[in-house]
Write a structure and sequence with these properties.
The complex is a heterodimer. Chain A is an alpha/beta fold. Chain A is built from 12 helices and 15 strands. Chain B has one domain (4-191): Pyruvate-ferredoxin Oxidoreductase, domain 3 (3-Layer(aba) Sandwich). The chains are: A alpha/beta, B alpha/beta.
C-alpha cells in the first residue's frame, strides 16, 4: 500500500510491526520523534513492548544491553549527541554480542550547536563493532529496519540503521508499507541461543577478561563482523524476493560504462541521480553527453572493500563525497576507506574527496554538477575540497 | 502535468504552512502522485517567516535538496510580501497565490518584477466564517487546485471528506466547515 510518511514515521511504523519485546530510549531532544511516535503505539496497546523511558542515552543503551542479555528482542532510537552519550555502551553491546537494533537519525555533533544533518554522529561510532546501514529515503529506512532485526540476530552483532536528519527524518514522501503479518513472518520469532533468563543453562555475561582471553574474544567479534557481510546480502535478497525491493551493499547507478563517478551515502545520492541523468543527456555543453555514474554506499560496517574495488575498478576518475570530516587533515571517513580499497588494483583510479553538507548545509544540483565538472575537466589536483562553504 | 512540479509555501510560524504542504501532498497521494512535503527548519518562533515545500510527480522522486525554483508560490500571510521576496527563484511562467482580501491587480502592483499569473483569495475570512477561527491553510488547498489544475477537485474533495470523517467522527461541524471552506476558496479565488 502506498502511503505518505516522514522518515521518522516510517521507522516508527517498522518498529510497531516488529513489535519488539523491549524498547529502552531517551525520548526527547536530541532524539527525533521516532520514540515519541512509538510510545504512542505502546500507550494505545498496539504493541506488546515493555517501554523504558530512560534518564539518558547512556542509561537507555545500558537497559538495552540488559534486556538483550536477558533474551528479549530489543530496539532503541537516537541521534547526534544522544549517540555520542551512548558511546561507552556501544562497545559493550558489540563486545557482548548483543543483537540490538538502533534506529538512528544522522545529525551533526556539537560544537557549534546544530540540529541538522551530517554523518558525524554515526561515523564516530564506526569502530564500535556495530553494523551500519545508511539509507537514501524513508522507504529504505523502513525496509532496512525490518531486515536489521534478522541481520543482527543472525550475526549476533548490534546494528544501526540511519537516515539523514530532517531531509528524510522530517520530510514526508511516498512509500510502500507491508502488512503486519508479512513483517511478522519475515522476522520470525526470536529464540536466543543463550540468555540470562534461561535458568536451566546458566551463563555469565560481561566477566573480566584480561590478557588471557580478551584478544580471542575480540578476534571472534571481528570474525562476526566479517561474516555479517554475507548475512546482509542474503537477507537483502530474500527481502527482495518476498516484497519486490532488493538491497545489497551498495547501489550502482549508470555506473557500468561510466568514465567519471561519485561515491556518496544517504539522501544526497537521490539528488545526484538527477544530475547523472542530466549529464548523460546534455553534458556540460548542450549536445555532448558525459558518461557520469554514481555508487551509493549503503553498508559501511562491515565495509565491502572487495566488492567496492571491483565496482569502481574500471572508472578512471572518482570523487567520494563525505558528509563528515575525520579532522585528520587527509579527508573524510568514506574517502579514506574507499581509497584504501582501491590500492590493490592494477590500474588505480584517480580519486579525490569532497566534504559537503556539514550541519545541514543544503547540497543542491549545482554543487553536485560542479563535482562532476571537476572530474570531467581533470581538476583533480587537490586531494580534499570543501563544497558549498564560504572561505 | 510536467515531470516534476514544485511548490513553495510562505507563512508565519504557527500559521500552518507545514500542515498545508502535508495536506496538499496527502491529497496528491490520493490521486496516485508521488509526493514530498517538507518544511524549512529554522528557529521555531510564532510569527517568524517560515517556508514549506512540495514536490509532485507521476514518477518516483529522488531529489532530496531544497526547492530553489518553484513552479508555484503560495503566500498565507500577505504582510510577508513587504518583508521578503516571495518571487525569488520562481519560474518565469510561474504562479503566485496569495491569501488576501485585495484584488489580484493590487497585489500585482506590489510585485512589479513578477510577470506570471497571480491569484488571490480571502482564505482568512472564509476560514473565520466556515470554521469559526482563522486557519487559512485549509481553504488555500481549494484555491491552489483552481490556480494550478494539478489535481481533480471533486476527487480531492471526496478524499478529504473521507479523511476528515475518520479523524473527527464526533465533530461533524468540523468536517462540514473544512469542506465548505475548501469549496468556497475554489469558487472565490481570482486570477489575473
Amino acid at each position: 500500500m502506498r502511503v505518505a510518511k516522514t522518515g521518522n514515521e516510517a521507522m516508527a511504523e517498522a518498529m510497531r510491526q516488529i513489535n519488539p519485546d523491549v524498547v529502552a530510549a531517551y525520548p526527547i531532544t536530541p532524539a527525533t520523534e521516532i520514540v515519541q511516535i512509538f510510545s504512542s503505539f505502546v500507550a494505545d496497546g498496539l504493541v506488546n513492548t515493555e517501554f523504558i523511558a530512560a534518564e539518558s542515552e547512556h542509561s537507555a543503551m545500558s537497559a538495552c544491553i540488559g534486556s538483550c542479555a536477558a533474551g528479549a528482542r530489543t530496539m532503541t532510537s537516537t541521534s547526534s549527541q544522544g549517540l555520542a552519550l551512548m558511546w561507552e555502551m556501544l562497545y559493550i553491546a558489540s563486545g557482548l554480542r548483543m543483537p540490538i537494533v538502533l534506529a538512528e537519525v544522522n545529525r551533526a555533533l556539537s560544537s557549534p550547536i546544530n540540529i541538522h544533518c551530517d554523518h558525524s554522529d554515526t561515523m564516530g561510532a564506526r569502530d564500535s563493532g556495530w553494523i551500519q546501514i545508511y539509507c537514501e529515503n524513508a522507504q529504505e529506512a523502513y525496509d532496512s529496519l525490518i531486515q536489521a532485526v534478522r541481520i543482527a540476530e543472525e550475526a549476533l552483532l548490534p546494528i544501526m540503521v540511519s537516515t539523514d536528519g530532517f531531509i528524510i527524518s522530517h520530510g514526508m514522501e511516498s512509500m510502500e508499507v507491508l502488512e503486519d503479518a508479512q513483517v511478522k513472518d519475515f522476522i520470525g520469532e526470536y529464540k536466543p541461543e543463550h540468555s540470562l533468563l534461561d535458568i536451566d543453562h546458566p551463563i555469565t555475561i560481561g566477566a573480566i577478561d584480561f590478557t588471557d582471553y580478551y584478544f580471542e574474544h575480540k578476534r571472534q567479534t571481528i570474525e562476526a563482523m566479517r561474516n555479517a557481510k554475507g548475512i546482509v546480502a542474503k537477507i537483502g535478497q530474500e527481502f527482495g524476493e518476498k516484497f519486490g525491493r532488493s538491497y545489497g551493499f551498495f547501489e550502482e547507478y549508470r555506473l557500468e560504462d561510466a568514465e567519471i563517478a561519485i561515491v556518496v551515502l544517504g539522501s544526497t545520492a537521490g539528488t545526484a541521480k538527477v544530475v547523472v541523468d542530466e549529464l548523460r543527456e546534455t553534458g556540460l555543453k548542450p549536445g555532448k553527453g558525459i558518461k557520469a555514474g554514481l555508487l551509493r554506499l549503503r553498508l559501511f560496517r562491515p565495509f565491502p572493500y572487495q566488492e567496492l574495488a571491483q565496482a569502481l575498478s574500471r572508472i578512471p576518475r572518482i570523487a567520494v563525497m563525505d558528509r563528515s570530516d575525520s579532522l585528520n587533515s587527509a579527508g573524510g571517513p568514506v574517502f579514506t576507506e574507499i581509497r584504501s580499497a582501491l590500492y590493490d588494483l592494477d590500474t588505480r583510479p584517480k580519486i579525490v574527496n569532497y566534504i559537503y553538507g556539514l550541519g545541514g548545509r543544503n547540497i543542491d544540483l549545482a554543487q553536485i554538477r560542479s563535482v562532476y565538472e571537476d572530474l570531467a575537466t581533470n581538476k583533480t589536483d587537490e586531494l580534499v575540497r570543501y563544497l558549498g562553504v564560504r572561505e | 502535468m510536467e515531470k516534476l512540479f514544485e511548490i513553495r509555501w510562505h507563512g508565519r510560524g504557527g500559521q500552518g504552512a507545514k500542515t498545508a504542504a502535508i495536506l496538499f501532498a496527502d491529497a496528491a497521494l490520493g490521486e496516485g502522485k508521488y509526493i514530498q512535503a517538507f518544511p524549512e527548519y529554522g528557529p521555531e518562533r510564532m510569527g517568524a517567516p517560515v517556508q514549506a515545500f512540495n514536490r509532485l510527480s507521476d514518477e518516483p522522486i529522488t531529489l532530496h535538496c531544497g526547492v530553489d525554483s518553484p513552479d508555484v508560490v503560495v503566500v498565507l500571510d500577505p504582510s510577508l510580501i513587504e518583508t521578503i521576496d516571495v518571487t525569488q527563484g520562481l519560474k518565469q511562467n510561474g504562479v503566485i497565490l496569495i491569501n488576501t482580501n485585495q484584488e489580484p491587480k493590487v497585489m500585482k502592483d506590489k510585485l512589479p518584477n513578477f510577470g506570471g499569473k497571480l491569484w488571490t483569495v480571502d482564505a482568512s475570512t472564509i476560514s473565520k466564517q466556515e470554521l469559526g477561527q482563522e486557519i487559512p491553510n485549509t481553504p488555500m488547498l481549494g484555491a491552489l487546485i483552481k490556480a494550478t489544475n494539478l489535481l481533480n477537485f471533486e476527487r480531492m474533495l471526496e478524499d478529504t471528506h473521507k479523511k476528515l470523517t475518520k479523524k473527527f467522527k464526533s465533530k461533524p461541524e468540523v468536517i462540514d466547515g473544512n469542506i465548505n471552506s475548501i469549496k468556497r476558496a475554489y469558487q472565490e479565488v481570482k486570477g489575473e
